Amino acid sequence: MILYLLRRLLALAGVLLAIAAVTFLIFYVLPTDPAAAACGKTCSPERLADVRAYLGLDKPLWEQFAHFLTGIFTGRTLGTGQYAVQCDFPCLGYSYENSLPVWDLLMDRLPVSASLAFGAAVLWLILGLGAGVTAALRKDTATDKALMVGAVAAASLPVYFTSVMLIYGVIRIAGLLPYPSYHELTADPLGWAGNLLLPWTALALLYAAMYARQSRGSMIEAMAEPYIRTARAKGMPERTVVVKHGLRSGMTPILTIFGMDLGGLLAGAVITESIFGLPGIGRLFYGALVSSDQPVVLGVTLLAAFFIVVANLVVDLLYAVIDPRVRY
Amino acid sequence: MTTTAPGAAPEAAPAGAQAKDVPPGSSPWQLARRELRRRPAVRVSLCVVLLFVLMALTAPWLGALGGWSPEEFDKAAVDPYLAGQPLGSFGGISPEHWLGVEPVTGRDLFARVVHGAQVSLLIAFAATAIVVLTGTAAGIAAGYFGGRTDAVLSRLMDLTMSFPSLIFMIAMLSVAKDVNRIVLMTSVIGLFGWPGVARVVRGQTLSLKHREYVDAARVGGSGAWRILTRDILPGVSGPVIAYTTLLIPGMISTEAALSYLGVGVRPPTPSWGQMIAESVAFYETDPMYFVIPSVFLFLAVLAFTLLGDALRDILDPRGGRS
User: Fold this and answer.
1) Are the CB atoms for B39 and B241 separated by under 8 Å?
2) What is the CATH code of the structural domain delimited by A102-322?
3) How do residues A38-71 score in pLDDT, each as one tens digit?
4) Which of A162, B80, B101, B245 has the highest CB neighbour count under 10 A?
5) Chain B residues 163-182 with CB within 8 Å of chain A
6) ipTM at complex level
7) How far is CA A158 from the centre of its chain?
8) Between B161, B164, B319, which is nearest A267 by CB?
């Protein structure tokens, strides 16, 4: 188990390194020159060279990358002489746009994206698994068909359409909720939930539909296993059979996609955040793209990759807990 | 993953689809016809899919039938005193403009939706083709050759799947400036999808490669290439076709999402996602403008999903739900 964990952690580091390298390559090789952008239109060649040197862009690419990597673990000094700035651990560089440390920007926005992701995840698990398991247990009945038609329709609706419809119906017409703005969970729990309710619903509808389809399939498969028949033959109450034997093994495939989905959302739901005007990482990312703020883009990409690989690792470890057949 | 033990009962394979009063040995085509008869929803979605494909293929002529080109302004169709609101009810639907017009510019929505179908479906189909070809090749190679090939390819699959794909797609599309947008979008979307197909194919290949008929071909002196193309490929094609059909709606949605975010195809070329993005600002004053491209997008995704579900039930016994 410990050996397995060590191996996985090593692989995790490798994956992150590869992703960092690819991201670095894409954004630092491609056309937009951050030095020229920072220097402005009336830039003399000497001044441009100064800016390049200050940003470290005059060094070979691999050296820039190595510098960037060491910065994450030990912090690094940016610039030289009297303009030198100490960027502390974990250093992801400074935003070109507002000169703030990328790490601080990310951590500032993370609570918003995390609130959105976790809240939506709770909602879609309840809705999706509820619908999927109900449909599986009543396979081929009217309930099953109605649920699955609903699921396939909801899965086909683009999230920006549902979001706009929710804003229109709930906020504009019915006036039930205020237009979402982010309230901190610790300061104002009710305001936090109330303001996030619509974004949660919009996001959760889409995922719930996919989970309903997926969990119905794997639940039907699980309930056809011989050990279910054995459990029933032992005289176990149907409830226990379904929950302890069916659900438990039927949920393993769901867990895999759940890890991926939640990990992917933690670093920002770009579309949902921009429609509802939530100041999360997705919006930060989008803004950084528009202004070619490469350090921020790189930071968000790395954070997103980090969440995905960590979520995958957690999922694989949870397998052993859920499924007694899995051993590491 | 379908890592069926070597020599696992081959006759059990098509059981899923054949459970109900189907004579043994039915060809996939017969099964498909039977399924079509049994499920009217599938029939409808097949028609919708065909209609959309036809619409995309004949876009220039079909668009001309409406009498307007997608980029042509019609100032006579909008009210200059009402901030460019379309004249007439339901977003300006009239014999002149079949689906109404855009506010402000007065561009014909029918022409834009039809041409948008072409762009959206072209990107979705081409990206799917890339994904399926790469995925099948990688999956077959990994499954059949095993060993180091499998290790390398499987690591590559894990790595690709760890990429935050939407974020990466947005970033790549926004940094590349002067490239053909349609080609760029196709390749960027196609880049991240292949591991899914590869895993399905790898699992299937693993279960096929120790079957007797493959052994027979090997003993008979067939080379690896011949075995892969003649014996393995037909065996994996069923699940691949089903998986492919289910990939297309995802591709259509991805293209729409990217264009919605403004990093996809550039105006004035229309695509559904981009039309929706432009119409969001008008959803209260001119709801039809917002609803029309959304309905087309919704129908296309829905129809392809239903069709994919049906094909999976027929062709992929293990992933089948019946």
Assistant:
1) no
2) 1.10.3720.10
3) 666 677 777 777 777 777 777 777 777 887 787 7
4) B101
5) 163-168, 170-172, 174-177
6) 0.83
7) 18
8) B164
